[in-house]
Amino acid sequence: MNCIAAVDSNWAIGIDNRLLFHIPQDLHFFKEKTVGKTVIMGKNTLMSLPEQKPLANRRNIVLSTSLNEKDFIVCKDLKSLFEKIKDYDSDELFVIGGEQIYRLLLPYCSTAYITKVNAEKPANRFFQNLDLSENWEMTFKGEKQVYNGIEFCFCEYRNTQPKKI
Ligand SMILES: NC(=O)c1ccc[n+]([C@@H]2O[C@H](COP(=O)([O-])OP(=O)(O)OC[C@H]3O[C@@H](n4cnc5c(N)ncnc54)[C@H](OP(=O)(O)O)[C@@H]3O)[C@@H](O)[C@H]2O)c1
Fold first, then answer.
1. Residues near 150 by beta carbon (within 8 Å), at least 6 away in sequence
2. pTM
3. Which residues have C-beta atoms less than 6 Å from ligand 1?
4. pLDDT tens by residue, 109-130
5. What is the pLDDT of residue 93?
C-alpha cells in the first residue's frame, strides 16, 4: 500500500476541508500515479472533492461510519477495509487522505509519495513529519520546480518496517 500527499514546510495538508495548494504539475502527478488504481480516502476528503463525487477512472474506497455506498465502496472500519483490499495488488492501493486516514493507514504503507511545497500556510490538518519519523527514510528527492512563484519538489519515502495488512 502507498500513500500520496502534498505538504507545506510544516507538513500541513489542509484547512477547513480544503487543500492548501493547487499546483497543476502536482495534480498531474497525482493523476498519473492513481488512475486505474484503487484510492482510499476518508469521508471528509470525499466531501472536499468537486461535487463531492469520487475520483473518475479509479476504484474509490471511502472510510466512513455514516455514508452509504453509491458509486464508491464504503468501509465502516479498518477490519472491513482490510477484508475488502486483501485480494488487491498492494502496489495499486493509494491512501489519498485526509489527516485521520493518513494517520490510520501510514503504518501499513510501504511508500509515501510526498510533494513538498516550500511555503507556510495557515492550516488545521497535518501529515506526520516523515523527516522526523524513525522508520521512514527519503529515497528520492526530485529537482526543485516552481509554479506561480511557489517552489515544490516531488519526494519519495520508504517505510523500513511496514505493518502487515
Ligand atoms: N494535501 C493533501 O495531499 C491532502 C489530501 C487529502 C485531503 N487533504 C485535506 O485533509 C483534510 C481532511 O482531513 P480530515 O482528517 O478532516 O478527514 P478525512 O481523514 O478525510 O476523513 C475523516 C472521516 O473518515 C471517517 N473515518 C475516520 N476513521 C475511520 C475509521 N477507522 N473507520 C471508518 N471511518 C473512519 C470518519 O467519517 P464518519 O464521520 O462518516 O465516520 C471521519 O470523520 C481536508 O482539508 C483536505 O483538503 C489534503
1. 21, 23, 117, 118, 119
2. 0.98
3. 5-6, 13-14, 17-19, 41-45, 48, 63-67, 76-78, 96-101, 104, 125
4. 999 999 999 999 999 999 999 9
5. 98
**Considering only CA atoms, which of 88, 87, 60 is closest in space to residue 75?**
60
- Spacing, Cα 46 to ligand 1 middle (Å): 8
For the chain, the average pLDDT equals 98
Alpha-carbon distances of 138 from 40, 79, 102, 129, 159, rounded to whole Å: 23, 30, 18, 12, 9
Q: Is domain 2-159 given the CATH code 3.10.110.10 in the classification?
A: no
What distance in angstroms lies between residue 54's CA and the mean position of ligand 1's atoms? Answer: 14
Give the closest residue (by CA) to ligand 1 atom 10.
98
pLDDT band at 70 (very low <50, low <70, confident <90, very high): confident
User: Ligand 1, atom 8: nearest CA belongs to which residue?
Assistant: 98
